[in-house]
Design goal:
alpha+beta; Multidrug efflux transporter AcrB transmembrane fold; Alpha-Beta Plaits; Gyrase A, domain 2; 4-stranded antiparallel β-sheet; 14 helices; 20% strand
Length: 542
């Protein structure tokens, strides 16, 4: 056998071996959440060819920076930090083979295969998780300022029922109830009932108040009015509780007056774990601070023994602020009222991952069920098989023996494409299947160009060997041009596209490269072997 043919066969054998090796199922270690809520490494055996969301089901989220509260100075840096935080959260979430990547300069794409709970996924990804510990209003400064606040609201024309001569905007703000002369109960015992005091019920903790749940929107509107904000004592801030509470037969929303300056923030958090408190049988999150955080916390709590300290997450007070009975070091716990263990686990997860540097808003959301994915796979398989059979039959019937060689080369193309996708760790999506089927046609298209050129050379009475060499030589520029332009288009799709478009671009690119190798290299090798075995052949069945 000539050295040229032998070298070609060695190259083909290496490509086949590499493709087969890439497709061999192997053990893969992934992190999953155990029954106790802790993350564990587990080993699964699978083919390295991953399936996308549209094939196995899951959730797709696209997030951008939320600038509704004000512009963000360093958008690129903030997005990069947010990407790291989200990636850490998702890694601990226990989703197998998630995708978290930055797309362009303004968007983060999160794909969670196999996940069936969109609400939980959005909560994990979108939650800011900014944690603070603050002392409540131990001096009752807000309570003492309430008469002035009520007076300011009256001057603005606002009563319990609504403004006496309020503008239409305020009337809508307070629910449209503008009846005058209604008796306002003095719930705080200030001696003078007022528009705000009549809606507040004092709690047992300094700085704690309760608002009937049905009055929550109205009170929230009142405390954010400029007239009220100006009179809130300096150094204090009003924050709502995280969830309503029951007092007797009614539901109330807790409202807390807390110091603006935090004792410590979540940046000193070292670890957080969800547990069930055996005493009260409720979900809690135990936390541990860093050494530096422990020293700060220890000094601060030593100065505030006997005071109540609120635990604030994303601007909401979690549970009832406990009293500081002794100096606290690095360890503590967060009590979650009426929360499930899963809620505590999710909170511990986002606390460990850290706070988002900027708020994020979901701009695109897709959920694909597993049944739709299986149906897509079956239809994709059917389309690929029908398309391949049609190509095989037409090629073999039209080009006879040369068509059979093209069919053999096509089988190599399929192996090279799947092996290449597995080797590069590509994710196979439904558009990717479309790209794969499309590249089958393009693989045969290159053979068609070559065969037609060979036919032209044979019509000029050239020998079989000369016709084959000339056919490949003259068809090469057209094949290279067509494949190159297609690859360039696919690269643009990959660079500027998202999700399924990227999958189509990757599969199409790998398929084009594999088709070029199979059509130009493998097919010519088969021709050379046939010519070597029949040196005296006068005709080529083509």
């Amino acid at each position: 056998m000539p050295k040229n043919i032998r070298n070609r066969l060695i190259v083909i054998a290496l490509l086949v071996a590499g493709s087969v090796f890439s497709l061999i199922p192997r053990d893969t270690t992934i992190r999953v959440r155990g029954p106790d809520g802790r993350m564990r490494d587990t080993t699964v055996r699978r083919i390295p060819l991953k399936q996308g969301l549209d094939l196995q089901g899951g959730i797709h989220l696209a997030l951008e920076i939320d600038e509704s509260r004000g512009p963000v100075a360093d958008r690129a840096g903030a997005l990069e930090r947010a990407l790291r935080v989200i990636r850490t959260r998702i890694d601990e979430f226990g989703v197998a083979e998630p995708l978290v990547q930055r797309v362009g300069d303004e968007r983060i794409v999160v794909e969670l295969p196999g996940l069936r709970d969109p609400a939980r996924a959005k909560q994990i990804v979108q939650r800011s998780a900014f944690l603070e510990w603050r002392i409540t209003d131990m001096q009752h400064q807000f309570r003492d300022a309430l008469p002035q606040i009520d007076a300011a609201l009256r001057r603005a024309g606002i009563t319990l029922g609504g403004p006496a001569r309020a503008p239409e905007a305020l009337e809508q703000l307070l629910g449209g109830d503008t009846a005058r002369g209604q008796q306002e109960p003095d719930t705080l015992g200030t001696g003078t009932p007022g528009p705000l005091t009549s809606l507040l019920v004092p709690g047992d903790v300094p700085g704690e108040f309760f608002v009937p749940e049905e009055e929550y929107p109205r009170v929230d509107s009142l405390i954010h009015l400029p007239e009220v904000q100006r009179l809130i004592p300096r150094g204090l801030e009003l924050l709502w509780g995280a969830a309503p509470v029951s007092r007797g037969a009614r539901a109330y929303r807790p409202l807390y007056a807390v110091e603006r300056r935090p004792v410590i923030t979540g940046e000193y958090l070292a670890d957080a774990q969800a547990q069930i408190d055996p005493t009260f049988n409720q979900a809690i999150v135990t936390f541990q601070l860093t050494r530096a955080g422990g020293r700060i916390f220890s000094r601060a709590t030593a100065q505030h023994i006997g005071d109540h300290m609120a635990i604030i997450l994303d601007g909401r007070v979690e549970g009832t602020p406990p009293v500081i009975r002794s100096q606290i070091g690095q360890r503590g716990q967060i009590e979650l009222a009426n929360a499930r263990l899963q809620d505590a686990q999710d909170l511990a997860l986002v606390l460990r991952a850290g706070a988002l540097p900027v708020p994020l808003v979901i701009v695109e959301e897709r959920t694909v069920g597993p049944s739709l994915g299986r149906d897509s796979i079956e239809k994709g398989k059917r389309a690929a098989i029908i398309g391949a059979l049609a190509v095989v039959l037409i090629t073999a019937a039209y080009y006879r023996f040369a068509g059979l060689l093209a069919v053999v080369a096509l089988s190599f193309y399929i192996l090279f494409t799947l092996g290449g996708l597995a080797a590069f760790g590509a994710t196979l999506t439904l558009p990717g299947l479309a790209g794969f089927i499309l590249s089958i046609g393009m693989a045969v298209d290159a053979n068609v160009l070559i065969f037609e050129r060979i036919r032209e050379e044979l019509r000029q009475n050239k020998t079989v060997r000369m016709a084959v060499d000339a056919g490949f030589q003259h068809a090469m520029p057209a094949i290279v041009d067509s494949n190159l332009t297609t690859v360039l288009t696919a690269l643009f799709l990959f660079q500027f596209g998202t999700g399924p478009v990227k999958g189509f671009a990757v599969t199409l690119t790998v398929g084009i490269l594999a088709s070029f190798v199979s059509a130009v290299f493998v097919t010519r090798t088969l021709f050379l072997i046939w010519i070597h075995n029949r040196p005296a052949a006068k005709e080529l069945p083509i």
